[in-house]
Amino acid sequence: MSTAFGDWTPDDGCTDAQVTATEDHLGISLPDALRDYYATAGRHPELMGLNGHEHTLRVTAPEHLDIEDGHLVFCGENRWPARWSVRPDDVGWPDPRVHGRSEPGGKWYSESRRLSAFLINVAGRQAVASLPHRATCRVREQQLGVVESLLSYVGSREMQKGGHWLSFVDPSRRLLASYSYNTATLHVGAVEHTALASLHERSGLTLKPA
């Protein structure tokens, strides 16, 4: 958050009372990982996807959470009907598996082994899409070492294991990147255009303006 948007303030997050009210309404306890995301970013327009950008996700605010087809749905795409959820049997776990589906009524599939990893990468995707200077690059999985040598993982790679995305950060250059295994694409965003130029020069990757 500090790399992309500046210092965190209490106004960026939900209060414990707001989250507890949702739990009382639904009759369930939310996973710790989701509570942590709400506490940190539950009122942050970009990280919650409230700006309506077509390439971002929309994380459901706690007061709008609901049970859909037996799943607690907490995230969806702004442009497409894909949704992500936690099964009710797993909701009480601190860091449960995430399930997704591409359309209403479709079959749920396993998306990520850990909710925390999924949310880290949701934040990475949201931040990259919100930054003023952006670029994309095709990067095969075998080429990830180039990215790893220049950028740091958000948290760590171990924290992000088990999902379809990876998130990277370079705080000194105020640059963030999000990698999709499914499309073999690296999305990069920066506060200053010079940070993209520097990454291109240092990596040799062909960055195309987004």
What is the average per-residue confidence, as pLDDT, rounded to a whole number? 93
CA radius of gyration is: 17 Å
Give the overall shape: globular
Uncertain parts: none
Q: Tell me what portion of residues adopts beta-strand conformation.
A: 25-35%
H and E order = HHHHEEEEEEHEHEHEEEHE
Helix fraction by DSSP (H/I, runs of at least 4): 25-40%
Describe the secondary-structure layout.
Blueprint: H1 2-5, H2 16-26, H3 32-41, H4 45-48, E1 57-59, E2 66-68, E3 71-77, E4 83-86, E5 98-101, E6 109-112, H5 115-130, E7 133-138, H6 144-150, E8 152-153, H7 157-160, E9 165-170, E10 175-180, E11 185-190, H8 193-203, E12 208-209
Antiparallel strand pairs: 1-3, 2-3, 3-4, 4-5, 5-6, 7-11, 7-12, 8-9, 9-10, 10-11
3D structure, described in words:
This protein has helices spanning 2-5, 16-26, 32-41, 45-48, 115-130, 144-150, 157-160, 193-203; strands at residues 57-59, 66-68, 71-77, 83-86, 98-101, 109-112, 133-138, 152-153, 165-170, 175-180, 185-190, 208-209. The protein has 210 residues and is α+β, with helices and mostly antiparallel strands. Strands 1, 2, 3, 4, 5 and 6 form a six-stranded antiparallel sheet that branches. Strands 8-9-10-11-7-12 form a six-stranded antiparallel sheet, sandwiched between helices. The longest helix has 16 residues, at 115-130. The two termini are 21 Å apart.
Key features?
globular, 210 residues, alpha+beta, 12 strands, 6-stranded antiparallel beta sheet
